[in-house]
């Protein structure tokens, strides 16, 4: 197992290197000159002033040099300064990351707590009213864009209850209740889609597992319905569900951006969107790299979880 | 299809506003939940105390006072810093930190400071602080940008005469000095060595009515009342929170719920929110008028190199139709200096009935005289966001079809648009102007940009002469006829075609009194507002 983990960690190195290169180049290929964005397109600035700004920002250096400086900075824990605010990128991300992580955790907790039981009920009571309701609900959940749902919830609570979550973000450690009142509704907004996916995946895999010979054998041996469903079937059905949840966690890290903007939560996605508009190269690159790294780590974690869920995989 | 007129509804559909039901429909649907006619509960006696939360559309990015390019930068720091002068809501110049000023000759300004003014750190304001600040304005450190220097007056040196007197020596006569100071966007005064004492990105010390508590980028700026403010009894409220809420529906929801006391919204949402009895809608013109710009380059022989074609284009544009379709009927004709900019703009009646009168027959005749009666194709760049820019381009396209000009609209992101605009890489564009500290800022490009935008055009010499005369005339009352004459000349040449000035809408809760929409595009009205 240790060798397996070590091998997977080693495999991350070329993956991250390739990603950093791709991210760096793609950011540089974005249309629009950062100097024009920074100067608001002021036509009165002279070419000398433009070059002066470019030099100040270190953008006059050859691309390979800029790339190495960025990668070297990241390795040393200092990925540079924001081109717009000149605040350290690390400080900006340290502020934004916990907000997004909290949002994603809430979304995943909802998704797992609701999606798996619904999927199990739907599969074990196939073609029942409950199954139909869950399936239709799943389809609706999949069809509703989270930004639309978020906007609807926000307007609904503001008009009907004259209430919306507090507008200035409060960290959890500072005011746990205040913090939760701020992030639960955005968390639900982004979780609906994931609940639907988890429910549908759980149902599909449960149906497949429930038709397996060993389940029939368990039933023939007189195991209770509950034991068959939860002990024999669900555990085996969870492997693809864990994969989906892991994938969704990675997707939500950046995918919650629009919901963050709608609720005014300055998380990672929100920060990334603002940085892209501003062509803030160091911030865009580092945020994207951070998200990509989280994605890779999540994939690894999911692979390792397989072994926990199914000891046969661990044994191999 | 020349007969087909775009309706406002079609225009909205085309730009995806109605199709994007996710954004518009919720507010329209939920509107049915109950609103009543707006009533304002204005009382005349200001009250002290309370906390105001105001929603900003964008993050200030940084609070540094010198050379800040984003408009939102000044949204974030305008309550912290003061300048030597200030504008009132009608752009009349008033003293702020200055007690008085004199201009002994056309290259010298001498300012006497009010005595006893305190910075937020308790230090007294002196001429040394003014010199320190002006030296940094002339060479703004990061995160400021030298690119704003096109708006910085021709200050050659700043000298301390005594503790409360400062002298500015100009490189040349430059009347823009007064407007630069009164606008205040780039001319806030900070204490000596402030940049050494703190991080100007997130901190600051000024003489303004509010003292900074904290700035959390992308989230909020919090201020508290500065008890020693020189402009007492202002400010009236105790605390001010500027919350960054980029999503308009979020601002609408926050206004409805009372989570914020005020915000800027679109005309459509302002109309909806105006029916809420707890909210009051304010509107006001800003300097961001819309206009068409042409380039005329040597050797290209574009049709619009002929003045008559440009005049035909202007005559074929029905500005009222543009206002009705894109701006819900709320807008004004604009000249080169926008309506609302003090006494400098051309009278509205002259714009409507004379200079920019919609006259299709005249337009067709001019096209015929220029040899283009069968029309020509034209590519027009527009700005993708805000959406009204491209909507306006669509209406202009429809108008120009009447004189057989086939317009191909190319919406671009602001960065790309600004780049093309800046280096003259466009034939025609439809753009938005912005606030300037001095009327010269609206016309200076006819001299400064002439080689870049119109190198193939023989510019009438009186344009450059009038621009030079305007900036060299320090007496404001003597400048009005100069800029009137200059605008009249420009309206004959029409190398740029001003279209319409649009309104800005701010919605506040009924407990916030004495607010106004500032022409400058900042939230200056909050300085005098109070909570009832």
How many alpha or pi helices of chain A?
14
Mean pLDDT of chain B: 89
Computed over alpha carbons, the radius of gyration of chain B is 24 Å
Distance between the termini of chain A: 9 Å
Main interface: chain pair and counts: A-B, 56 and 61 residues
- Approximately how much beta-strand content do the residues of chain A carry? under 5%
Count the beta strands of chain B.
21
Describe this structure in words.
The complex is a heterodimer of chains A (316) and B (532). Chain A is globular. Chain A is an all-alpha fold and 316 residues long. Chain A has 14 helices and no strands. In chain A, helix 7 (146-160) packs across helix 8 and helix 12 packs antiparallel against helix 13 (281-309). Chain B is α+β, with helices and mostly antiparallel strands and 532 residues long. Chain B is built from 19 helices and 21 strands. Chain B has helices at 8-14, 21-31, 71-77, 127-138, 176-183, 194-197, 248-257, 267-273, 307-316, 319-326, 348-355, 360-369, 388-401, 414-422, 440-443, 445-448, 450-453, 461-472, 476-493, and strands at residues 51-56, 85-87, 93-95, 98-105, 108-113, 155-162, 165-170, 210-216, 220-225, 239-244, 262-265, 279-285, 290-294, 331-333, 376-383, 405-412, 428-432, 496-498, 500-509, 512-513, 530-531. In chain B, the strands form five sheets. In chain B, strands 1, 8, 9, 10, 11, 12, 14 and 19 form an eight-stranded mixed β-sheet that branches. The longest helix of chain B is centred in the C-terminal third of the chain and has 18 residues, at 476-493. Chain B is globular, with a radius of gyration of 24 Å. The relative contact order of chain B is 0.16. At the A-B interface, helix 2, helix 3, helix 5, helix 7 and helix 11 of A face helix 2, strand 10, helix 7 and helix 14 of B.
